[in-house]
Amino acid sequence: QSVLTQPPSVSGAPGQRVTISCTGSSSNIGANYDVHWYQSLPGTAPRVVVYRNNNRPSGVPARFSGSKSGSSASLAITGLQADDEADYYCQSFDRSLSGWVFGSGTKVTVL
Amino acid sequence: QVQLQESGPGLVKPSETLSLKCTVSGSSINTNYFWGWVRQPPGRGPEWIVSLFHGGSTYYNPSLRSRVTMSVDTSKNQFSLTLTSVSAADTAVYSCVRGTIFDPFDPWGQGTLVTVSS
């Protein structure tokens, strides 16, 4: 059971917008710890697509954006492309566990 | 550019001990970062295992704490993971990572698959 809850899957046609939610609690996201988002492809290390809630690393397209409110966060992908098809995970820090926690993961499918 | 590289056996027998090393290049371990380990079982999401701030605190995943040890060898710019009494549930890709409480894990090592099987 993951500490951070994500929908198992989302899908969209090319060019559409999809959003992925990440629901935490008052001991992690709600305690003002930042949320980071990773894109995970088979056989490769996870890639950071959003860090500290709403920042994009260099090289990540502006189509990826993040937001945070209360104990939840979201990742939005606009102008969906075929190579966005991957698993996405949110991650934060939990003060009750005194450790880092990941979301349950969301598979993005491009129809 | 900081790079991490895992090394260790790819096959461990049940009830035995898993031991992995991570070699850091492009940076000294003696910096203001946590160094740690994350694993990803086949078909499942990542699970943080342990992180250590050199010269400071070690943070453990409570579900694994009783079986995990992490240490640092500054002379080799390496850190290591040992996980005792392994079972098939410990089969996963193990990756070493760098991070802070406020930043994402970045970079990651390429990961090494450890299979627990007799």
Shape of chain B: globular
The shape of chain A, in one word, is globular
Helix content of chain A: under 10%
Residue stretches of chain A low in confidence (pLDDT < 50, at least 5 long) are none
Quaternary state reads heterodimer
- Provide the residue-averaged pLDDT of chain A: 96
Largest sheet of chain A: 6 strands, mixed
**H/E order of the elements of chain B?**
EEEEEEEEEE
- Unreliable residue stretches of chain B: none
Largest sheet of chain B: 6 strands, mixed
Estimate the helix proportion of chain B, in percent.
Answer: under 10%
**How many β strands of chain B by DSSP?**
10
Q: Which strand order does the major sheet of chain B show?
A: 2-10-9-4-5-6
Radius of gyration of CA atoms of chain A, rounded to a whole number:
13 Å
Largest interface: A-B, 25 and 24 residues
Query: How far apart are the first and last residues' alpha carbons of chain B, in Å?
Result: 39 Å
Instruction: Note the gap between the termini of chain A.
Output: 29 Å
Descriptive report:
The complex is a heterodimer of chains A (111) and B (118). Chain A has 111 residues and is mostly beta strands. Helices cover 0% and strands 44% of the residues of chain A. In chain A, the strands form 2 sheets. In chain A, strands 1, 3, 4, 7, 8 and 9 form a 6-stranded mixed beta sheet that branches. In chain A, a hairpin with a 6-residue loop joins strand 3 and strand 4 (47-50). Chain A is globular, with a radius of gyration of 13 Å. The mean pLDDT of chain A is 96. Chain B contains no helices and 10 strands. In chain B, a hairpin with a 4-residue loop joins strand 5 (47-53) and strand 6 (58-60). The relative contact order of chain B is 0.32. The A-B interface holds A 2, 33-34, 36, 38, 40, 45-46, 48, 51-52, 57, 87, 89, 91, 93, 97-105 and B 36, 44-48, 51, 59-62, 95, 99, 101-111.
